[in-house]
Design goal:
single chain; mainly beta; 6-stranded antiparallel sheet; 2 helices; 43% strand
Length: 106
């Protein structure tokens, strides 16, 4: 019997449908900030990084000399689930869910 598909969770890797500030196209889920009435993740906070692995740090932090990675909130419809974190490392998601469907927008 197939197991229930796992939902997006902290530590998972995602791709952004449209790069943030034209540069940051990937992220690591830091927090699930809201869920649908069915319990599916709706909004998440993610640490962003670019193709070269550079983390997004808010310009105000840089001006203050703080090199603290910033997180940005996104609706899951703006993301593609790329890799799932587990105790054994990361596993590629072969058929990522379509988070733009109604059950993720409610």
């Amino acid at each position: 019997m197939p197991s229930k598909p796992q939902d997006l969770d902290r530590g998972d890797l995602v791709k952004l449908r449209d790069p943030y500030q034209g540069r940051y196209g990937y992220g690591v889920v830091v927090e699930i900030t809201s869920r649908t009435r069915h319990g599916h993740p709706r909004n998440v906070s993610i640490h962003l990084y670019d193709d070269e692995g550079q983390l997004f740090i808010h310009p105000d932090y840089i001006a203050k000399g703080l090199l603290v990675p910033s997180y940005v909130d996104f609706h899951v419809s703006e993301l593609v689930w790329y890799r799932r974190a587990s105790d054994q490392g990361y596993h590629t998601i072969p058929n990522p869910p379509d988070w733009s469907v109604d059950r993720y927008l409610a």
